[in-house]
Amino acid sequence: MSQEDILEQLADSLADDLVIDWQLATTLDDQSETVIQNLAVLGQIAQLQGQTRVFSDTKPYGQAVDSAFRWGHLHVLESIGSGVYGEVFRAHDDVLDRQVALKLLKTEVKSVVESMRFIEEAKRMARVRHPHVLAIHGADVHQGRSGFWADLIEGQTVDQLDPEQVMSGQALFLMCDQLSAGLAAIHRAGIIHGDIKPANLIRDDQGNYLIMDFGAGERMDEQGHGVSAWQGTPLLMAPEQMLHQQSGPASDIYALGATLFKLATGRYPVPGETLEAIRQGHLSGGISSLQVQRPDMEQPLASLVDDMLLADPDKRPNTAQIQKRLRELEQLPQRRKNRRAVISIITLLVMGMVFSGWGFFRAEQEKAQALVARSQAEAISGFLQDMLNASSELGRGKDITVADMLDIASPEVDQKFADQPQVAAALHHALANSYNALRETGKSLQHAQSSLTIKRGYLDEAAPELLKTRLEQIQGHQLQGDHEQSLVLIDDYLQAAVPVLGDDNRYVQLARKHQINNLFSLSRFEEANAILEQYFAEIEDPATATHNFGFEILQAKANALTFSGDYAGALEMAHQAIEWLSIYPNKSPMNEAGIRTVKALSLLQLGRADEAEKLFQDVLLITERVYGKDNQEYLETLNNLSTAQKALGWNAEALQTNQQAFALAKQIYGDQINLTVIALGGNLANLQVEQGELQAGEATMRETLAMAIEHLGNQHVETLKLEYNLAELLNNQGLHQQAEAMASQTYAMKAEVLGEAHPYTILSMDNWAISLAGQQRFAQALVKHRMVVEGLASALGAAHPYTWLVMKHEIESLQSAGELTLAKQRLSDMLTHQRQTLPVDDLQLQANEQWLLDLQDLPD
């Protein structure tokens, strides 16, 4: 290669890539020394000012080209980036029918060397296929212009991100994870990228990072080294490159670490305003530590970045080791959660205490007082040490859960403390409490009974320590769904406790709260309300309260109003509970999640599904943070969210959420039938119907209804809901006689259980009216339609979506019966309310406006 060709290639490299191939520069003769020095100065100025090649546009981003043109099979649409020699366009690939990014050599550039470099860069990039590496689809020369085309990434290069905003540990983790995975793919292809820097990294509009621009890349030799010693961006170059030693994959690791360091601190690991200053910084070992600069960051992550910046390339982690350390770091929160859980359960077992702030325990549980004396605590301490030693036998690689710890402890209690009954009783009580919190109610009831048996040997029935254990037994039956047995135990409990302790005693109040919850579950709302009114009329001041019982009663009252159909009242009571909680100093996250759920359910019934959906999303996040994703609380929230999404008409989202919930239910309950499984089955059936799968929906609904009748009885609200849905489905399929039989039966049962004025009862009459109209029995149908419209308007308001729904059904029946004058009047009345409530572009409003026009064209 001639001296002129070498100089031209060096100049091209600097101008377009801001890098100088010093290996090539050493082949120049002595007379070119001044030129080399000048190139070095230019390189320092450009790189230290942080200029970028890909997006240092001379045209505004997205500027349309003066005239559209074709390059091969690509239709060029607009210019989106420009360098000295290359230009990037948005183009349409006519073969694959999609938009791509096309990088072309500028028309004024006639350099054969530059043309070859374009093609070589494309070849290097095309060797790598990875989600976090820009995908190259082809390279070619058309009309004398070299170029290649790649995925069109909508996003920003990392150097375009806010320079004043340092990255959080979580964001840095994501970036390191994705880019090290992409870099691993590059290295597996036998390529050294050579210039990892913010300008060559892009974050797409989904928040994912990709590596691009292989202009400085090169093939590795057989030893895994690069040919060029010095190539890259000085502030991000590895020490071996700055000191003119051999580069390799470890040099890319250093550049990635330096990039992460810069984004986390706002400064480079080895700062300097000149090449010499940077070189001296490396020689003196002046690399800053991220652990020192960001003490707030997770120490393992900061340590990983520091190791990527080690002076010795052999000591830097490779991409596989980086990924391994990131996976370990990813598991840290769960490990810490497990460790906290283990510490908490140890404290619980030693002291007999329940921590309301610990995720496994509900807010309704109180802190118990110490159950054992110091000598007894010492005995328990030895027992716990044995338990911890035994847990290690489960294997170091296994995540030791609280359930594992409890299962280890349980069989040993009676054997080790046969001569210390008070210690054994305390441990059985704590285990019962813990298993209740984990919803392992069968085990909880066993330990509660063991504790009671022992305590009855030395305590009276009204002794506080015995009463607390009886409450665990009551709650165990309640959580197990055995509400009748729980109520029997509560009656016995109150007979023993009230004469001795009085109605205001905390344990008595807790028993009555369990009584209310059981009655709600059995749809015995009047009895539950009577207890609330008689014993909980006054609510403790939250500012001075020592526990959250006042909040729990407000929440119970909101639930009572919801069950009775007074959704506006329930919403107001939920607001009162939220206000109480905002003042109370020791609230827990699950308190907030619980009352937001009550509020969201009320909003859902009031037709404000958009607000309800947002609340359920909030509850889902709280529940995940506290309990994780594999528990009943998370499952119930998914179920509620699916209902809200369905109410909004988001059928695809609702179906996806419901399927997630149903899969989780199978994981949690297996073949067990309970209220949650039944509710999910009903939802699944409704969603199948919404998707037009009527036969599948009917089959699912009948199967779920059979489960509900068997498990809950024919008077339970969930059973009645399923019967309503089945009658509605039968009407939709034109099976009006079957629908009539189901609807009339459901209406009678709802009227008995809920009362004739309850919205659920009224809606069952709506199904009945539709079935009668479907059989041409219009006189009977129209009477019932009018009762339904007036009943729902009274219960929910004339502008409620449910009221509009039943009005629509009445109008349809009037139209079928030939009562067009009355049909027009009813539709006009409904539109009056909708025009006052809905925006003019609402599809429902527009459809009804057209419906009225169509009716007016018909003769009366």
From TrEMBL:
Keywords, ordered alphabetically: ATP-binding, Kinase, Membrane, Nucleotide-binding, Transferase, Transmembrane, Transmembrane helix
MF annotations from Gene Ontology: kinase activity
SMART domains: S_TKc
Organism of origin: Marinicella sediminis
Domain of life, per lineage: Bacteria
Name the record gives this protein: Protein kinase
Keyword field contains Endoplasmic reticulum: no
Keyword Coiled coil: no
